[in-house]
Design brief:
- By secondary structure, the chain is mostly helical.
- It has 21 helices and no strands.
């Protein structure tokens, strides 16, 4: 690997990766918030039962798409073939083959899911969602921008999906379309993004199947497929058990709470994807990988911990003053998913470092461990206690996942100390939580929306102030990467190929 694949524009690879991480962090939070806003707006416009139908579809069919999330794009980014046009066409061909097979699987699975959940309403929208797969295939040109770390263009194109989806989904819900609002939003966002990606594609789309290269991709992707299956067990099991224990409205509550995980995972994916090409370029330099891992994780935890703990604090207010009385049962799952999102960010981007070294087996072990924890801990709790069991079990599964993650990280980075890393990240969020709880202890009478708003502002201001104070050195370094860097006199800089990400 070398930095020659990147248009560095006078920067070192360290500066390019750091700048990309910061810019994409802001992008990810903004775009993710649009998706989260869409979920909560639709929850306010629809019934829990309609949301439950979408939850079954999202888990049943959405998790099936994980079967194709086996690293085709990641392997394309990692490779360094001389003919990039040919390699893109080979990867695109594999993507098309996988999506075609997945489409056939989904068509066959929809009636089975309808029987399994005893819910015939999912058949028509489920079959309609098969139309997403061609759009997903046609978004492959985004890989080229990703590999070159041309994040500005890539993220601008990817922003079309949540923006269009928000407009279409809310418009359809307001018009009375019910759960079809979700389907329309998903299709509209995906196809607008696909059209834009094709418009900017530097290579013609061609069918180029190569058996040897296909085996190379499969060798890389096999453990990632196992990881996807583990994720399917957890997601499918949660919705199925929740519906069995407490009905369709419970499935809607779990889906709404899961939108928190979707938001944080989407932000995580953007941050990890930002660093991944640069990590691949220096995959054999462990000390540089460790530096980038620690610093990027600290930057992500600055927003993830306050967000997760804030949701746990203010979920009852969100239900009382926003969602309405129909969503009372969703409060505990929302709080649990908030806590899980917070602690789950510790070492969140670890998978990129193992993929960059073509060591994907730990990712499979991690996912299987989480699935086993779900079956042994969360599933019995859901069946016994309903949505409260979801809340307790979710935190327990995340704790098991974090332990397995730490064991593998210690193998890669011998100097990594999870406890010290966690305490450093946790304490800036503590003063805000304590002050909010103290303010609530002094309240008398019925709680008002004004009191909730003032407490939210207090929490945000205190948390930001303490974070800036405690992480000022890292923030100064990060801000420095955002400043323009003029090339030295005599012409543009020739950056060293081994400059690390930060």
């Amino acid at each position: 690997m070398s930095a020659s694949r990147f248009d560095l524009r006078g920067r070192s690879l360290r500066a390019l990766a750091a700048r990309g991480t910061l810019i994409n962090s802001a992008f990810a939070v903004a775009v993710g918030l649009l998706g989260l806003l869409r979920g909560f707006l639709l929850a306010a416009l629809l019934t829990p039962e309609d949301y439950g139908v979408w939850g079954i579809l999202l888990v049943s069919l959405g998790t099936l798409t994980w079967l194709k999330a086996v690293g085709i794009s990641d392997r394309f980014v990692q490779q360094d073939e001389a003919d990039q046009e040919l390699e893109f066409q080979r990867a695109f061909t594999l993507e098309a083959i996988l999506n075609t097979a997945l489409g056939l699987l989904v068509v066959a699975a929809v009636p089975v899911m309808a029987i399994l959940y005893d819910e015939s309403k999912i058949i028509a929208p489920g079959l309609a969602l098969v139309a997403l797969l061609p759009a997903m295939t046609l978004q492959a040109p985004l890989w080229v921008l990703y590999r070159k770390m041309d994040f500005a263009r890539q993220r601008a194109l990817m922003a079309l999906d949540p923006i269009v989806g928000l407009a279409v989904g809310v418009g359809m819900a307001a018009a009375g379309a019910g759960y079809w609002s979700f389907v329309g939003a998903a299709l509209a966002g995906a196809y607008v993004t696909a059209i834009a990606a094709l418009w900017t594609c530097p290579y013609p789309l061609r069918w180029r199947y190569d058996a040897a290269r296909a085996r190379s991709y499969i060798s890389f992707s096999g453990p990632l497929l196992v990881s996807s299956v583990g994720g399917i067990v957890v997601a499918q099991g949660s919705i199925l058990a929740g519906q069995a224990a407490a009905g369709l409205a419970a499935a809607g509550a779990i889906t709404l709470a899961s939108s928190v995980s979707f938001f944080t995972n989407r932000v995580d994916d953007v941050l990890t994807d930002t660093l991944y090409p640069a990590i691949c370029a220096v995959a054999d330099r462990t000390e540089l990988l460790f530096e980038s891992f620690v610093k990027s994780n600290r930057l992500a935890l600055m927003w993830a911990l306050p967000f997760g703990f804030g949701l746990a604090l203010f979920a009852p207010d969100l239900q009382s003053f926003g969602l309405g009385d129909d969503w009372g049962d969703a409060v505990e799952p929302l709080q649990a998913f908030g806590v899980a999102a917070a602690i789950g960010h510790l070492g969140f981007n670890w998978t990129a470092y193992f993929m960059a070294r073509a060591d994907t087996k730990p990712i499979a072990v991690h996912s299987v461990s989480a699935a086993a924890a779900f079956l042994a801990i969360e599933l019995p709790l859901i069946l016994a206690y309903g949505l409260r069991g979801v809340a307790i079990g979710t935190v327990a599964v995340v704790a098991v996942s974090l332990l397995v993650r730490w064991l593998f990280l210690r193998r890669l980075f011998t100097d990594f100390r999870l406890g010290r890393h966690a305490l450093r990240a946790l304490w800036p969020a503590v003063p805000g939580v304590v002050l909010v709880l103290a303010a609530r202890a002094l309240e008398t009478g019925e709680r008002t929306a004004l009191e909730a708003t003032l407490e939210l502002v207090l929490y945000g201001v205190v948390t930001v102030a303490v974070t800036v104070l405690s992480e000022r050195r890292l923030l100064r370094e990060a801000i420095g990467y955002l400043r323009p860097q003029a090339p030295p006199a005599g012409g543009p800089a020739a950056p060293p190929a081994t400059s690390p990400p930060a």
